[in-house]
Amino acid sequence: MEIMTSISSSALKVEEWDKAFPSLVAAFSTKNGGCSSGDFLSLNTGLHVKDREEDVVYNRSCLGNQIHAPLSKWVLADQVHGSKIQHVSAGDCGRGTLKYENAIPDTDGLWTTDLNVFLSLCYADCVPLLFVEPTSRFVGAAHAGWKGTVQNIAGKMILEAQNAGVDIDQLQAVIGPSIGPCCYIVDEYVINQVNNVLANEKQKPYQEISDGQFRLDLKQLNKLLLLQAGLKGQQILSSILCTSCEDQLFFSHRRDRGKTGRMMAVIGWKG
Ligand SMILES: [Zn+2]
């Protein structure tokens, strides 16, 4: 069963988290309800894809209003398909929101325990990972395309939380809408790295469909990595939505052959 429900035409929320944590904002944007045109029709939230800057800022601002997380309190990263995770605080609010240049550099994961800091990362097929632990007020967000995934950004976020004193038994993770195995074919080069990161895992999140061609389930791979890092199955929720199949809801880098917009995942506590 799908874990996401609509906030508006522009945003989805995690139903279970919405009930459990009334002061938490945890939202995934769709491609609808914005002002961008052409390849970016219409709610493009990525500043780095050659869309009009003022349109992107307007889109972000509208999204922020709808999810009750004002854009001035967002923190964005300059995402590079790596696995570096950065701790941010209230003083970082606004970074990367209006200009790409002052985003947190070379970073694909963010976490904070401050109120009114909304971690915001861009996606178009890659896996958005969100984390929450209510007692410590820990929230985290990670961008896990295949490269970040095989560098185990999921497991590194658990380690970051642990090092920050967070009770890992109380941590919850959401694996958001991203490209599904239905639409994601990769070659042996990728699969070798998947096997490396899975260490002794017997279960494989891929299937060979022809010589050297594999269907890869990136969401399942991230789930296995979260389990490997110490989370239990009941601490992990996963969306079944495929960004490529759901062409009325999402941008998809693969489906749209690279010329497309970006969705945003946003998480933070309202103060
Ligand atoms: Zn699909």
From TrEMBL:
Reaction catalysed by this chain? adenosine + H2O + H(+) = inosine + NH4(+); S-methyl-5'-thioadenosine + phosphate = 5-(methylsulfanyl)-alpha-D-ribose 1-phosphate + adenine; inosine + phosphate = alpha-D-ribose 1-phosphate + hypoxanthine; adenosine + phosphate = alpha-D-ribose 1-phosphate + adenine
Q: Does the keyword Transferase apply?
A: yes
Its needed co-factors are: Zn(2+)
For molecular function, the Gene Ontology terms on record are: copper ion binding; hydrolase activity; S-methyl-5-thioadenosine phosphorylase activity
List, alphabetically, the InterPro entries matched: Cu_polyphenol_OxRdtase (IPR003730), Cu_polyphenol_OxRdtase_sf (IPR038371), Cytotoxic_necrot_fac-like_cat (IPR011324)
Family that this chain belongs to: Belongs to the purine nucleoside phosphorylase YfiH/LACC1 family.
Q: Write down the PANTHER family for this protein, in alphabetical order.
A: PURINE NUCLEOSIDE PHOSPHORYLASE LACC1, UNCHARACTERIZED PROTEIN YFIH
Name of this chain's protein: Purine nucleoside phosphorylase
The top of its lineage is: Bacteria, Bacillati, Bacillota, Bacilli, Bacillales
